[in-house]
Amino acid sequence: MNTKHILSLFLSIVLMVFSACVETVYDVDLPKTDPKLVVYSYISPDDNLMVRVTTSRPITERQVYGDPRWVKNATVKIKETGGQLATLTYDQEANYYFSNLSNLPIRAGRQYEIDVSTPLGLRATAICKVPPQNTTVRITKVDSSFQSYEMRYKVRIEFDDLPGEPYFYRIFASAVVEGNDPNNPQGNIFEMDLMFDYGQALIDSRIREGGNFVLEGTLYIYGGVPYNQGRLRGFRVKLLSVDEPYFRFHRSNNLYDGENPFAEPVIIYSNIANGLGVFAAYNLHEIYYPASNYLTTKSTTIGK
Hints:
Elements: H1 3-20, E1 37-43, E2 49-55, E3 69-70, E4 75-80, E5 85-91, E6 96-99, E7 111-117, E8 123-129, E9 138-147, E10 150-160, E11 168-179, E12 189-193, E13 202-204, E14 212-222, E15 230-242, H2 244-255, E16 275-290, E17 300-301
Parallel strand pairs: 1-16
Antiparallel strand pairs: 1-2, 2-3, 2-6, 4-5, 4-7, 5-6, 7-8, 9-10, 9-17, 10-14, 11-12, 11-13, 11-15, 15-16
């Protein structure tokens, strides 16, 4: 038997083996699921109460991005455990339930409850506790360099963990720039977000309880100045002390990669009883550092 016949026989056997491993499945009955309430709300001592309420879609139904099933006739209540209660009203234009903070002050260290119900009998509940404010955040160093028509800023941000129980944090930082923003022709002051390494801006203090945390944010400005017309005015940093539901929900969202068909499945965290979504709390502290205080073409270290 010559080489050509051997190769042909080998390929025929391989095809038969792999064909035997393939089975076409028809008429798979997926389990039917009833719709659930999907509730999203973050409460804070500095913000009015806002709650978004939709319903989930069955897995067999065509998913339409940006077309949620708004629930507009729900009864939405938030109360301090053992204390004052606020009933929220629906805003038709913004598609959320709303109440002024004066109707229910949000205080650090207090526990709050949310209760959402509909005329069809759906009901979802959750609780969260507001963490204390952390005011230790600071900028301790700024590096700036210019090369090949690109200005790079590296900003070192530090803060100290609060003593006592474990806490969770989230950092937002931006550069405040004066110039011409093509996305906002009416205004000449705008902000550009600093970039952090993946997952760095969401912090679990249990990895260094009671310690000091250091993050480094980076900003690239092409052409030396934004849009070739403008100047850096300063840096804004927001440190959010967040509760565990906030941390776990956003960490699971960070792990989710819906655009990658080969990504591992991720269970999105929810603390909503009889529903989906999250009811969580945060406490914000914000600082602003004018660039004129320390910005040079060399590394600058800022005193604590």
